[in-house]
Specification:
6-stranded mixed sheet; 10 helices; two-stranded antiparallel sheet; 20% strand; alpha/beta
Length: 414
């Protein structure tokens, strides 16, 4: 009635956490996609493993999915190959791999504390796991699948020593003298059947090595075409062709429940294809990182006629000083003075006369644009400024189009 917490609440919470730890499931080998964490949780609580995998994907997008999965790989024992004895869940020594996985999970979880939305998602995810254990953790089938078998109690041998065995030995009995043929009832007992033989090991699928070999052959063939006919096929087609073959292998593996080790190769090839395509676009014959040359361009035109209509650099810097340019209208020269600067990687800096009327269109694919005190930064930045100067409109207008793919654009008054 007074709103105080029951003294048993903390004890019950500790009991729940202790039960979750002691009854943690094994990661199976027969129904895993990556490390078997989702399949282990699904078997422990008798739910569809697809739902658990979807939950991990959603949790990864929200924030805590990857650290929780790595922690599951570290604390949930591996079931081992089919037919192997189940490992002990209690008191298992932490292996070096488990320590590494736990350390990596902690490092990935640290940023979650400093983001409110990700911290909330983490608390909700952990709460759902606890609620799942409370509601379904005591189901008979799930409990039998999770709890390790209890060893048989010891028995006392005739000589007084204590022995540990599943059942005490049965003393050998011989037929009586009047029953030489062994027709006594106890002689009719047949021996207990022995343990069933372990199932033969599941043959390993050849999908992964065959797919990788085919990807290597296809990538080699495309590489020969790239070298033999420059320009006909971009270099990014080499990892792209290998990625296409691996993608086909993953599609086939989805139906045959095999080929999960192709996933890391697909990720690496996708990254290589993207980087190669980016490098080809930037460094190729017409790439923006080499178009116009490499180095710095420093110009200070003495008059409007000396201002070039375009300055271009692939990698470098363009420094244009227009303070000497007289913008006073004259007969036949009263229109705007225009110039364009294009830079791939680097920047452009323009100094204009103090009282000039300027119209600036500044762009940066990735970087920052600063025009007369106004600034924007980020990706695909654009800043348009029209400024008649401190003395107001008057004189020829100075129109500047400035563009850099990666770098900075600056326009200031001298």
């Amino acid at each position: 009635m007074n709103g105080t917490r029951s003294p048993d609440t903390g004890v019950q919470g500790m009991d729940t956490l202790r039960d979750m730890w002691e009854s943690r499931p094994l990661r199976p080998r027969d129904d895993r996609k990556l490390a078997g964490v989702a399949a282990a949780i699904a078997r422990r609580y008798e739910i569809d493993p697809t739902l658990v995998r979807i939950a991990f994907v959603v949790a990864t997008i929200a924030g805590p999915g990857l650290p929780l999965y790595l922690a599951g790989c570290a604390v949930l024992p591996d079931a081992g190959p089919p037919g192997a004895a189940a490992p002990c869940r209690r008191g298992t020594a932490s292996s070096a791999l488990s320590i590494v996985l736990l350390s990596l999970a902690v490092l990935l979880a640290i940023p979650l504390v400093f983001a409110a939305e990700r911290l909330i998602a983490t608390v909700v995810t952990v709460g759902l796991l606890v609620a799942l254990h409370i509601t379904r953790g005591s189901r008979p089938g799930a409990r039998e699948a999770a709890v390790a078998p209890t060893p048989a109690p010891p028995w006392v041998a005739p000589d007084g020593t204590t022995q540990q065995a599943a059942v005490p030995p049965v003393p050998e009995r011989t037929p009586p003298a009047w029953d030489p043929l062994g027709a006594a009832p106890f002689a009719w007992d047949l021996p207990e059947p022995g343990p069933e033989p372990a199932p033969p090991p599941v043959p390993r699928s050849k999908l992964t090595p065959v797919t990788l070999a085919a990807a290597l052959v296809v990538a080699g063939m495309v590489g020969v075409v790239v070298l033999a006919a420059p320009g006909a096929v971009p270099p990014s087609a080499v990892p792209g062709a290998a990625l296409a073959v691996v993608g086909i292998g993953l599609l086939v593996g989805a139906f045959r429940r095999a080929g999960r080790w192709l996933i890391p190769f697909a990720l690496v090839l996708a990254l290589a294809t993207g980087l190669t395509s980016l490098a080809n676009g930037a460094l190729g014959p017409d790439g923006w990182a080499t178009r116009g040359g490499v180095g710095a361009v420093v110009e200070a035109p003495a008059n409007a006629a000396a201002v070039a209509p375009q300055y271009q650099r692939g990698t470098g810097w363009v420094d244009l000083d227009l303070r000497q340019v007289d913008l006073t209208p004259t007969p036949g020269a009263d229109g705007p003075v225009r110039s364009r600067i294009e830079v791939g990687i680097g920047g452009a800096s323009v100094t204009v006369p103090r009282d000039a009327d300027v119209v600036v269109r500044g762009e940066a694919g990735y970087g920052n644009v600063t025009v007369d005190g106004q600034s924007q930064s980020g990706r695909d930045v654009r800043l348009d400024v029209t400024d008649p100067g401190p003395d107001g409109p008057g004189g020829r207008v100075l129109e500047l189009d400035l563009r850099t793919e990666m770098g900075s654009v600056e326009v200031h008054r001298g």
